[in-house]
């Protein structure tokens, strides 16, 4: 009888404790915020900001940009693994009139994360045009929370993560077209994939409103999880005690 009671108690403690431990760990490390000031490439006229909060490998990403080709999708990525810098239009090495994604790579590196609206966010979704934001009125307002890979997390810490938005209407036709084809996908016009804006993701200044807000939010969430874990444990214990009391009363009733 004592063994039967002891087993569920141990199980309840084991179920509750990992959650409390995780919350304590994330509260200790804290969330880190990064900000990118987007500058135009390929004379796109794009202006904007990127904000990223990393809590472990959980990234909350916000991108606000204006001046994009309206009604067209714009691929957007974290690029990693190079200098953590943005190229300039002068890096058009082959002289085709475009700074291509490849020509920018020595500065910002390869795709580390695809900032899609749904589904996969790996480099494999780099050109998943149907899952990137469409700039309905020439602006993009993007927010999503998802997991990044370890190498992307490391790039943020090293200062080599760069936010890049693609798709530029260089000839002003109102669509992605022209004779120059993409260095990434020869079936697409260069305009569809050439970078339109770029910004290095740098650790946000202390006291910056968006960064502070995001960190407060993460702290509240961790606290809420801890409360929930304890609440579940307490409920389960109450339930076990209640069941025991009922069984006891039944036995008493049987004996009477
Ligand atoms: Cu990119």
Using the alpha-carbon principal axes, give the shape. Answer: globular
The average pLDDT is 80
Beta-strand content bin: 15-25%
Fraction of helical residues = 25-40%
Q: If you consult CATH, what is the topology of the largest domain?
A: Immunoglobulin-like
Uncertain parts: 1-28, 207-256
Q: Could you describe the largest sheet, including whether it forms a barrel?
A: 9 strands, antiparallel
> Which oligomeric form is depicted?
single chain
Q: What is the tally of beta strands? A: 9
Q: Rounded to an integer, what's the Rg over CA atoms?
A: 26 Å
CATH-level-4 superfamily name of the largest domain: Superoxide dismutase, copper/zinc binding domain
What would you call the structural class? alpha+beta
Order of helices and strands: HEEEEHEEHEHEEH
CATH class division of the largest domain: Mainly Beta
Protein name: CHRD domain-containing protein
Keywords: Signal
Organism: Blastococcus xanthinilyticus
Signal peptide: 1-27
């Amino acid at each position: 009888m004592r063994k039967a009671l002891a087993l569920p108690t141990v199980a309840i403690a084991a179920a509750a404790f990992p959650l409390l431990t995780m919350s304590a760990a994330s509260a200790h490390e804290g969330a880190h915020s990064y900000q990118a000031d987007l500058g135009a490439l390929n004379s796109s006229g794009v202006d904007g900001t990127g904000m990223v909060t990393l809590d472990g490998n959980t990234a909350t990403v916000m991108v606000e940009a204006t001046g994009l080709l309206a009604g067209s999708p714009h691929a957007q990525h974290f690029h990693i693994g190079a200098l953590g810098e943005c190229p300039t239009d002068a890096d058009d090495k082959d002289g085709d009139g475009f700074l291509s994604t490849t020509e920018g790579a020595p500065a910002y590196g390869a795709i580390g994360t695809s900032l899609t609206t749904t589904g996969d966010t790996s480099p494999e979704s780099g050109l998943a045009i149907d899952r990137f934001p469409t700039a309905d009125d020439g602006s993009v307002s993007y927010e999503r929370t998802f997991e990044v890979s370890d190498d992307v997390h490391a790039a943020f810490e090293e200062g080599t993560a760069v936010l890049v938005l693609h798709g530029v209407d260089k000839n002003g036709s109102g669509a992605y077209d022209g004779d120059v084809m993409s260095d990434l996908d020869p079936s697409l016009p260069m305009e569809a994939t050439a970078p339109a804006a770029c910004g290095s993701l740098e650790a946000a200044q202390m006291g910056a409103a968006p960064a502070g807000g995001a960190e407060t939010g993460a702290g509240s969430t961790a606290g809420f999880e801890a409360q929930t874990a304890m609440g579940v444990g307490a409920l389960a214990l109450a339930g076990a005690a209640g069941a025991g009391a009922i069984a006891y009363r039944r036995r008493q009733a049987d004996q009477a």
